[in-house]
Specification:
There is one protein chain. With 105 residues, the chain is an alpha/beta fold. It has three helices and three strands; from the N terminus they run H-E-H-E-H-E. The chain has a domain of 68 residues: Ribonuclease E inhibitor RraA/RraA-like (Glucose Oxidase, domain 1). Helix content is 22%, strand content 14%. Strands 1-2-3 form a three-stranded parallel β-sheet, with no helix packed on it. It is globular, with a radius of gyration of 15 Å. The N and C termini lie far apart (46 Å).
Length: 105
């Protein structure tokens, strides 16, 4: 068994500067895990979370969903119920370029 190597994104960028690009967006972690990984599945949707909700109810099998919401803040693409469905169905994580709703009481 090999030991898992820990590295930083900046190390990858330094080593492969001409071959990779950096992300201009500022990301915010809202989940229970600081890190996650898995096979990536992508989806594009604007102002409608119906497709995200449908995917959340599919078996995730450790995948990561990357949602291109165009950065729009007009309507949330994920809230608490959808987030719970992702967790319950075995998704490793979700990355959304768009609006989400975090718990309100």
């Amino acid at each position: 068994m090999t030991q898992r190597q820990i590295f930083c994104t900046s190390d990858i960028y330094d080593a492969f500067e001409g071959e990779v690009a950096s992300l201009d967006l500022q990301l915010q972690s809202l989940g229970q895990h600081r890190q996650f990984h898995g096979r990536i599945r992508t989806v594009q949707c604007w102002h409608d979370n119906g497709l995200v909700k449908a995917i959340a109810n599919e078996p995730g099998e450790g995948q990561v969903l990357v949602v291109d919401g165009g950065g729009s803040l007009r309507s949330a693409l994920m809230g608490g119920n959808i987030a719970k469905a992702f967790a319950d169905n075995g998704w490793a994580g979700v990355i959304i370029h768009g609006a989400i709703v975090i718990g309100m009481k």
